[in-house]
Design brief:
Helices cover about 55% and strands about 0% of the residues. It is mostly helical. The protein folds into 2 domains: about 10-90 and about 165-180, no CATH class; about 110-160. The protein starts with 10 loop residues before the first helix and ends in an 8-residue tail after the last helix. The structure holds iron/sulfur cluster (SF4). Iron/sulfur cluster (SF4) binds near residues 10, 52, 72 and 73.
Length: about 180
């Protein structure tokens, strides 16, 4: 006998367009109906999430683990930022770009590319790095300045006292405190 286990499909998978960024929805609507149209779409998406069996897990991950964009788990990006502020947490995004990517064609030089070439040739001048990548010296300087600023930020964060990961109950309490959690 074969036992079929059904995996529930969340409402957002059935109606991806409904979960578009609210700003994107607003920019495609015009006239006096704009606010009402956005509010209506939000309310429908909110009701879909509210009835979703994955809501708690989805909310927790979107608040604590990954800074996703758009409307997720009854919350907008602003709502999730509010919850994180209340919980005193930040979500750091790992870079998805491969380290040391080579430049393809005449496209713009990526930040990761400049950092990788700097690591490979630590004694090169900015002019030499620019020649290696076929870009301007100012582009190299801009990316190296950004790399220094990011390194400083990481250093500052690492010196902050470590906070424990919030529990599901804490995230749900912060969510319940949102005015928009009563939206639908
Ligand atoms: S709670 Fe999450 S998984 Fe469920 S419909 Fe909303 S966004 Fe999709």
């Amino acid at each position: 006998m074969t036992i079929a286990i059904e995996t529930p499909v969340p409402p957002c998978a059935h109606q991806p367009e409904l979960f578009e960024d609210v700003a994107a929805v607003a920019s495609t609507t015009s006239g006096s109906g704009t606010v009402a149209a956005v509010q209506e779409r939000l309310a429908v998406a909110h009701r879909s999430c509210a009835g979703c069996p994955m809501l708690v897990d989805c909310l927790y991950r979107a608040v604590v683990e990954v800074d996703v964009s758009g409307f997720v788990a009854c919350t907008t990006e602003a709502d999730r930022a509010t919850i994180r502020r209340q919980l005193g947490i930040e979500v750091t995004q790992p870079t998805l770009a491969p380290y040391g990517t080579t430049r393809l064609g005449n496209g713009p030089v990526s930040h990761e590319m400049v950092v990788a070439v700097r690591h490979a040739h630590p004694k090169d001048t900015c002019q030499q790095l620019a020649e290696r990548l076929g870009c301007s010296t100012s582009t190299i300087k801009r990316h190296l300045r950004r790399a220094r600023e990011e390194a400083t930020r990481v250093e500052q964060v690492s010196t902050l006292p470590q906070r424990r990961t919030p529990s599901i109950e804490e995230v749900l309490d912060a969510f319940d405190a949102l005015e928009t959690s009563q939206f639908a």
